[in-house]
Amino acid sequence: MTWTFFARRVKANPTFYGASSSADEDVELFLLSVAKTALCLLNKEGCVTLEGNMDDVDCDVLPSALGAASSAYYLTYRTPKQMRFGLMECAKMFMKEAADVGTGNRSKSLSDLCPLVRLRRADEISIAWLLYTIACTHEFDELPVRHNEETLNEELSKRLSWGADTSRILSPNGGSRLLNPEIYAQPHTK
User: Fold this and answer.
1) How far apart are CA 161 and CA 45, in angstroms?
2) I want to staple 19 with a disulfide (CB 3.0 to 4.6 A). Which of 3, 30, 72, 140 is the partner?
């Protein structure tokens, strides 16, 4: 790691990056601490699994399925965990709706349901939740809110079939939360 461009920049300006000095040992310790911090963060978000002790040289870093997807599609390291949470919440809503369709006190799983039974609002709930989850991803954090766009977003939010979420109208990705579901929720006739 000492031959990377980052290491050369740290050596040239150690105080800017937070290294104690430009000595080779200090730069190497700084780079090691940055790598450990990054690996711990990726482990916490579920992108990699660490086998062994982080202080040991023989620590194995294994990518998870979420980490591989994040890397392949250039997603931030937080997005796969957020998408997994959104899908689990969608599945919970779907199971709750399926349980309401069940007869008597017997709780039915999705595999026990008759394929011709259409759940009342399951399609609408699952599509709305999935679109909301996609629109809330961290990739949309950088979308700017232009002048007076918050009022337009609020009006658009009131027309959504699944209700208004006016709590984040002014957030950077508030517009994406409104526009994406509205565009994809309407049937395309062309």
Assistant:
1) 33
2) 30
